[in-house]
Amino acid sequence: MTYQAAPGRYETMQYRNAGSSGLKLPVISLGLWQNFGGTRDYPSAFAILGRAFDAGVTHFDLANNYGPPPGAAEELFGQVMARDFHPYRDELIISSKAGYRMWDGPYGEWGSRKNLIASCDQSLKRLGLDYVDIFYSHRYDPKTPLEETMGALATIVAQGKALYVGISNYPEAETREAHRILKALGVPCILHQPSYSTLNRWIEDDHTVDACGELGIGIIAFSPLAQGVLSGKYNTGDTKGARGTSNNPFLKAENIKPGTLAAVEALGHIARARGQTMPQLALAWVLRRKEMTSALIGVRTVEQLDDNLGVLNNLDFTAEELAAIDAASASGLTDGKPRW
């Protein structure tokens, strides 16, 4: 049966401009980082992707190495584009990135012109697209001049392979310099994609968030649920299929400290008082700042997607609630600043 998008898909979603650009993104975007790899079949993948688009989620975020194995998420999304989303291409924002390890040898990672342009070409082939809407430098490369990395992004735009460019995992000083170089090249940096959550506030401590606000760069936060910790699942012990029990190198269950679990427990009381689930509270908190364009969610099921989208019912906080969240989070704060 041919997929037809829900006619009312734009009625409930909220959209925000990506910084000072004219591009609007949904406040909730869907990332394909770890849940759309080689073990995901097409029907279960499309059940989530189609449901998201039907709810007004127009932005789908990928990278060359998303899987596992690397490349699998782009290949799967390419099938979705060809089979079901093709009629809606102009309603979709599709992003990809390059910078983390993708292939063997000295050119398969980091920020060289060789890596970024080759990676973009490979991603387009896997996606079956002529262009992506946004292409990112996935991480700052301390051994490659920023002029080279940003110049590669500008070339990708000039070649028609991307409409916009952004950066990800860049600290404040490097964010400012990347913006300066791109501006001089006539290609604005419209988005920064850092990790950010109530437990991981490095962009506040590092003042990256302030730099983005000053420069007109939108922020789209990844891991707003702190790799699932802020869902509360690790407090209940019901971790079947959770990232902390997998081979995910970014989170191990044994690294979830008592202070973290205590913070999540305290945050749960605040969420319930607001009539929200834990994920909804975590997403609303990330989106509270004017600099935030969108929050990237990663879900394994349609039920998780629907729960996350419920954040749209209550995005506002009182000053007292924000103070309570700060106090509750204190014992679980982590230093998430990128290091090379």
Describe this protein's structure.
With 340 residues, the protein is of the alpha/beta class. The chain has a single domain, classed as Alpha-Beta Barrel (TIM Barrel). Helix 4 crosses helix 5. The longest helix has 16 residues. It is globular. The relative contact order is 0.13.
Q: What is CATH's topology name? A: TIM Barrel
Order of the strands making up the biggest sheet: 3-4-5-6-7-8-9-10
Please state the overall shape, judged from the principal axes of the Cα atoms.
Answer: globular
The mean pLDDT is: 95
Structural class assignment: alpha/beta
Total domain modules: 1
β-strand percent reads 5-15%
**How many β strands by DSSP?**
10
Rg from alpha-carbon coordinates: 19 Å
In DSSP terms, counting alpha (H) and pi (I) runs of 4 or more, how many helices? Answer: 12
CATH class: Alpha Beta
**What is the N-to-C succession of helices and strands?**
EEEHEHEHEHEHEHHEHHHEHH
